[in-house]
Design a protein that fits this description.
By secondary structure, the chain is of the alpha/beta class. It has eight helices and twelve strands. An eight-stranded mixed beta sheet has the order 3-5-8-6-9-10-11-12, sandwiched between helices. It has a two-stranded antiparallel ribbon with strand order 1-2. Strands 4-7 form a two-stranded antiparallel ribbon. Helix 3 packs across helix 4. The radius of gyration is 18 Å and the shape is globular. The N and C termini lie far apart (47 Å). One of its GO terms (molecular function) is hydrolase activity. Keywords: Hydrolase. This is Alpha/beta hydrolase.
Length: 314
């Protein structure tokens, strides 16, 4: 296995090392498309020497796997993109990838750069993938997201921390909005005394429901395994856990999304409205799935500006 080594950094007075992301050798740089800003970003190891779950087992990477995507995440990390002119809000960004890869390109670095240019300090989370051998597979991404938002709060003077996620990463962001108080790991330092509740969330073509009629079957299987029971399906359907304490949400979806039907966002919106949680939704006629910051020249490219305005108005 090839490894990417990143220099040691300090966090809260403790020295931490970025993970060696276990990536199968394919004869080329697996992160080739990622720009210099990715490689220059400060890297924060989430857990130090001991992770809250065990069992990691690297999987072979197909020879034709597109570069710029993360797999075999042995140690999760945050990658910090500082704001050009800080506006007082930090963003925890969770890219998508069906819980089987993490899209480091348009849903990762490109989005982080765009947010930083707008004044947001952005942290891209490279979270553990549940199908890579971990015990309690359905909890490992949310463990990482909870820990990540607490570390951001411990590091930043920003009064607000917002979660933003795409696709399966949108499911993770939505799970954080409803499951921020779940006790999923033993506290290990002062950061874990801080709240994991985001102040707001952006859910971009998110997977929300586990209803077979509308869900993304691949994401559900990767998160919960091949034959989840009804309790597991209900537990990881964020729309079923919205309450009055759920943070405000901003939703974006294309009506022609054939991978993750727009009913996912519509169900989340209905749950938010029923709980009287502030919400805004934008449904684009065209865009399909995975459009990231939007298709240039199309209405879908407007959502980052709309999201920025929504956050600034709150």
């Amino acid at each position: 296995m090839a490894a990417i080594d990143i220099t040691r950094r300090t966090l809260l007075g403790a020295t931490v090392a970025t993970p060696a992301l276990a990536l199968a050798q394919t004869g080329r740089d697996p992160l080739g498309p990622l720009p210099p800003s990715w490689h220059q970003a400060e890297v924060i190891d989430l857990w130090g020497s001991t992770l809250p779950e065990t069992g990691f087992a690297a999987k072979p990477v197909p020879a034709d796997a597109p570069p710029g995507f993360f797999r075999n995440v042995a140690r999760p990390t945050l990658h910090r993109f500082p704001a050009a002119k800080p506006n007082g809000t930090a963003v925890l960004l969770t890219p998508g990838g069906g819980y089987s890869i993490i899209v480091g390109t348009h849903e990762g670095t490109d989005t982080a750069e765009a947010l930083a240019a707008r004044g947001y300090t952005c942290y891209v989370l490279i979270y553990r993938l549940p199908g890579e051998g971990w015990t309690d597979r359905q909890d490992v991404p949310l463990q990482d997201a909870q820990r990540a938002i607490r570390l951001i709060r411990a590091r930043e003077a920003s009064p607000r921390v917002v979660a933003l996620g795409y696709s399966a990463g949108g499911h993770l962001a939505a799970s954080l909005t409803t499951g921020y108080a779940e006790s999923l790991y033993a506290p290990r330092d002062a950061a874990d005394r801080l709240s994991a509740r985001p102040d707001a969330a952006g859910l971009i073509y998110p997977v929300i429901t586990t209803d077979p009629a509308f869900t993304h079957a691949g994401s559900v299987a990767a998160l919960l395994g091949p034959a989840p029971d009804a309790a597991a399906l209900e537990r990881r359907s964020p729309d079923r856990h919205v309450d009055a304490k759920t943070p405000p949400c901003f939703l974006v979806h294309a009506l022609d999304d054939a991978a993750v039907p727009p009913e996912n966002s519509l169900r989340m919106l209905a749950a938010l409205r029923a709980a009287k949680v502030p919400a805004e939704a934008h449904l684009f006629q065209r865009g399909g799935h995975g459009f990231g910051l939007g298709t240039p020249g199309q209405p879908s490219a407007d959502w980052p500006e709309l999201f920025d305005r929504w956050l600034r108005a709150r």
